[in-house]
Design brief:
single chain, about 160 residues, alpha+beta, Nucleoside Triphosphate Pyrophosphohydrolase, 9-stranded mixed beta sheet, 3 helices, globular
Length: about 160
């Protein structure tokens, strides 16, 4: 059971995000129905720690076992989407592909197409110009903090 619940038009969600950077590129995902990009990740299951959840999600989405470098940020995210008000906790982890199994091409390309989701390596300079959600995630990439930062992102 994922950590998410809905009450009328309000949704609480817990999300884990993995940030994978190789060769000055970031692995991002995009749903065919959306016009923005985001990081790979998902929801922890009830009773599952966020660090275990991000490793599981990356394994499910890429087929590769990653390791955690460190927790970069914890975000309290408030936004509206599809007529609902969301209250979301997001854990951003920096990941390592220690076995170097996920290859980065010279050009942007699909890494894996799974459940109508497109995965691409995007150059960091291009990343900073793109529509990324949540919006403040660019600051995390810009600084890659050494200490965990707490962000409150209120888009309502």
């Amino acid at each position: 059971m994922d950590i998410q619940f809905k009450n009328d038009n309000r949704i609480f969600n817990c999300r884990v995000v993995g940030i994978c950077i190789k060769d000055n590129k970031i692995l991002l995902s995009n749903s065919e129905s959306e016009d923005y990009w985001t990081f790979l990740g998902g929801k922890p299951m009830l009773g599952e720690s966020t660090d275990k959840a991000v490793i599981r999600e990356f394994k499910e989405e890429t087929g590769i076992d990653f390791e955690i470098d460190r927790l970069l940020s914890f975000m309290e995210n408030f936004f509206e989407m599809d007529g609902c008000r969301w209250h979301e906790y997001v854990f951003f982890y920096l990941l390592k592909d220690t076995n170097d199994l996920l290859k980065v091409s010279e050009e942007e390309h699909i890494v894996l197409d799974h459940q109508e989701t497109l995965y691409k390596w995007i150059g960091i300079d291009d990343f900073m110009k793109m529509d990324i959600r949540p919006y403040c995630a660019k600051e995390i990439i810009k600084y890659l903090p050494k200490q965990i930062i707490h962000i409150v992102n209120n888009e309502i």
